[in-house]
Amino acid sequence: HASCVQIGDAAVGIVGASGAGKSSVAAALVARGCALVSDDLLPVRIGDGLALALPGHAAMNVSPQAAETFIAQRDPGAALAGKLRVPVGRTWGRLAGGPMPLAAIYVLANEPRGPAAASSTLLVGTAALVELLRHSFCARVVGLLGVEAARFAALARLAAATRVRRLTVPQGLDRLAGGLGLIEQDLAGS
User: Fold this and answer.
1) Which residues face 5 on adjacent strands?
2) For the chain, what is the total number of helices (H) and then of strands (E)?
3) pLDDT (tens digit, 9 = 90+) per residue, 144-161?
4) H-helix or E-strand containing 14?
5) Helical (H) or strand (E) element with 69
6) What span, in angstroms and rounded, lies between the C-alpha atoms of 126 and 128?
7) Angstrom distances, CA of residue 120 to CA of 44, 97, 159, 185
8) Which of 12, 15, 28, 173 has the highest Cβ tally under 10 A?
9) pLDDT tens-digit profile of 92-120?
10) How far apart are CA 138 and CA 23, in angstroms?
11) Contact of 95 with 6, CB cutoff 8 Å
C-alpha cells in the first residue's frame, strides 16, 4: 500500500500500515501544490539502478476528515470503506504527467503517544528492505503465484535504487505540517 506525489522533478512514495495516513499525507502535499502520481498502489519500474514511479488513477481515497481539511473544492465522492473517492485534476489538485524518478520512500510511523515533533530517519540495508517487504502489494497473492523470490529481488533493487526513510509524525491532521516540511527539506537537499 502506498501513495505517491511529485515534488519538483521527482516522486516521493508514502507507505505504511492501513490507516497510517498515507492518503492524508499525499492529500496535504497535493493541497500544497504537488502533483498526485498515485494513491493506494504505487507501480514502480526498476532498471539500471533507477526506480521510476508510474502514474495511477486520477483519484484519491481519503477520510472525510482529510477531505474536509485539505480539499477545499471537491466533487462528492462515493464512500468506500469509510473513505471518500475524490477525483484529482478536475476541480482540485493536479496529476503528474508520466513516469518519473522515485527519489525517496517514506514509511509512516504513527505512534499512539506520538512525538511532539515530526522526525525522519534513514533506513539502510536490511532495515529498508524489511519495510518495503512489509508494505508491498498482496503478499498472499505473491505466495500463491510462487514468485516470492522475484518479489524479494525486485524490492532489494528498489531499496538500493532509492532512499527509504521512516517518517514519524504526531497524530492529528492539524499536526502533519512538520512531517510535510521534512519531506520537502529532504528532497531539496538531494
Assistant:
1) 12, 36
2) 6, 12
3) 777 788 888 999 999 999
4) strand 10-15
5) helix 64-70
6) 5
7) 23, 28, 17, 11
8) 12
9) 899 999 999 999 999 998 766 666 788 99
10) 18
11) no
